[in-house]
Design goal:
alpha+beta; Maf protein; four-stranded antiparallel beta sheet; 6 helices
């Protein structure tokens, strides 16, 4: 079971698991609610979600906690990335707020707009066993946002060494696993570690 109610994350996780013949079900599809994320890190919040889902469903549960950290904002929004978008998940407003705060700090040139995405993945079993993995991708923020693919902050994130934002990339370009893709995204990088440890490799 995937412990998420985020349709964008669920779509990416289904695509990552597809080569391994794993047919996941979302927590929302089973009527399982979301626990309060009280952790101080992505890893802690992923574990909270995975353990709660595994206990509720009595199934192995796979959870993700991820977000964007902006260097000039001291790492914000970080673990509060989803909260910046508000209850309606309005990431256009959240991206605008990040850009406003960067401009207020004089961070208007590319070299001052460094940022990174982090994804923490946790697999929890009903017997209490837990496996944890983390991935990171570095880049910078662009304005205005570019592209309508992906979700969240993808349209303003330009990964290092690439000309397309995550919002402009296809699924294969962003998080496709080798040999189909480069395993570029933070979630793909964490998932490659998970696959090696729990799914018999990639």
């Amino acid at each position: 079971m995937i412990a998420t109610h985020n349709s964008g994350k669920m779509r990416e996780m289904r695509e990552l698991l597809e080569p391994f013949d794993v047919a996941p079900v979302a927590a929302g599809e089973l009527g399982i609610g979301e626990p309060e994320e009280t952790g101080a890190s992505f890893r802690e919040n992923a574990r909270i979600k995975a353990e709660a889902a595994a206990k509720a469903a009595r199934l192995p549960a796979f959870a993700d906690d991820s977000g964007i950290a902006v260097d000039a904002l001291g790492g914000a929004p970080g673990i509060h990335s989803a909260r910046w978008a508000g209850p309606n998940r309005d990431f256009a407003t959240a991206m605008g707020e990040i850009n406003r705060q960067l401009c207020d700090r004089g961070a208007v040139t590319p070299q001052l707009r460094g940022a990174h995405f982090i994804a923490a993945l946790c697999v929890a079993w009903p017997d209490g066993h837990v496996e944890e993995f983390e991935g990171r991708v570095d880049g910078r923020l662009v304005w205005p946002p570019r592209g309508d693919k992906g979700f969240g902050y993808d349209p303003m994130f330009l990964p290092n060494g690439h000309d397309l934002t995550f919002g402009e990339m296809t699924s294969a370009e962003k998080h496709g696993l080798p040999p189909r893709g480069l395993g570029l995204s933070h979630r793909a990088r964490a998932f490659l570690k998970l696959a090696e440890a729990c799914l018999g490799g990639s």
